[in-house]
């Protein structure tokens, strides 16, 4: 689990690594069009960058709208049409 920094929870780099490592391979890209396999290949500098970004978002209390979207697609066509709505 992450660390408490000034009584505010911070997500650790180990948590980021763990979550990325558990993502299933071979799935379609999400709203960001970043393949899971790409995330699983990022090196230490990438983990640090993702960690800083996630903690900035977490500490701000504002979750970007794109982070709230989730699509369940049965085909590439249905997924693309869902994104356009």
How would you characterize this protein structure?
With 85 residues, this protein is mainly α. It has one domain (3-84). The chain has 5 helices and 2 strands. Strands 1-2 form a two-stranded antiparallel ribbon. β1 (3-5) and β2 form a beta hairpin. The longest helix has 17 residues, at 44-60. The radius of gyration is 15 Å and the shape is globular. The chain starts with a strand and ends with a helix. The mean pLDDT is 79.
Any chance you could write out the topology, listing elements then pairs?
Layout: E1 3-5, E2 8-10, H1 13-22, H2 36-41, H3 44-60, H4 65-68, H5 76-84
Antiparallel strand pairs: 1-2
What are the main properties of this structure?
54% helix, 85 residues, mainly alpha, two-stranded antiparallel sheet
